Amino acid sequence: MVIIVALVAAAILSALLTVALKPLLIRYALARPNARSSHKTPTPQGAGIAVLATTVFVTGTAAVFVILPFVEFLIVVGGAIIFALVGAADDIKPLPVRLRLAMQFAGVILLVGHPDFRLFPEPVPYIFEWILIILGGVWFVNLVNFMDGLDWMTLSEIVPVTAFIAGLGLVDLLPMWIAVLAAALCGALLGFAPFNKPVAKVFLGDVGSLSIGLLVGWMLLQLAGTGALVAAILLPLYYLMDATITLFLRLARRERIWEAHRSHFYQRATDNGFSVMAVVTHVFMLNLALAALAAMTLVWPSSVVQVAALAAGLLLVGLVLRRFSHPRVMAPVEVSR
């Protein structure tokens, strides 16, 4: 019950805060289109402030109903706020790459700390695993930011993931407070959705995409820490593959990977004749399929099922990426005589 209440309350509060913030965003954080943009007119950005504030407030309020480990909660919130501040500064005036990365590493290290679980077998040195988690955390946050380049794209990815994580609290696979955090973030994004519907009236901005990436990355790490590593990989697999493959392709072309571009598969899809709604619908439906595969790995935790589910997920994402990278074939229109 508390999960549903958190989701609904977050949706309402997020919508109200977005409306209240929009005049300020128009004045101080207007995103003007350029050659790499998907939008055509100046659009206010920074509504991620409403999403993050709502998520934190609703989760904190839920302490009345669920056990909330305040130290851990404050660390999670502190890391998200660091990333939100980095994103807000970058939205107003782009920060130097080194400074931005340094602050991101600080936020991830603060949030991850020293996990009391192992993702890999004991022979793997703990320090190696810890460094891998830190690097993976920074990469995940940035890829969420990179992929937030189309109306409703972040919603089509993060809403299914957070809804899935919230559901795990109902079956005691994750602590209830993490499920409430996921439900609050899911609801906050749903409240923001009407304003970001194509053609968007407001964007999340880096203040939103970076902090959301951190929170979701941390929740997925907690899921992996329960032994559900494959499920934690499957849920964000589309984002992981699109962003990572694009990064390596850009490296192969010796491009400056820190500069804005339009090389992601979802961006190429719009250049290949896909409408924005067609792209985000593909991604949303793909994520529902990935969530189903993740659920399968939890219900049947045998190694055979894990490998089969991961292989199926890789195949499905690969098919979508291939479809996005080729011109859309339109059905011929019959001309009446």
Helix vs. strand class: mainly alpha
Mean pLDDT: 90
Indicate the proportion of strand residues: under 5%
Read across the widest sheet, the strand sequence of neighbours is 1-2
Following the backbone from N to C, one meets helices and strands in this order, namely: HEEHHHHHHHHHHHH
What is the makeup of the main sheet?
Answer: 2 strands, antiparallel
In DSSP terms (H or I, runs of 4 or more residues), the helix count works out at: 13
Q: Rounded to an integer, what's the Rg over CA atoms? A: 20 Å
Distance from N terminus to C terminus (CA atoms, Å) equals 61 Å
Query: Could you give the count of β-strands?
Result: 2
Binned, the helix content reads over 70%
Pick out the low-confidence regions. none
- Coarse shape: globular
How would you describe this protein?
This protein is mainly alpha-helical and 337 residues long. 70% of the residues lie in helices and 1% in strands. It has 13 helices and two strands; from the N terminus they run αββαααααααααααα. The longest helix is centred in the first third of the chain and has 27 residues.
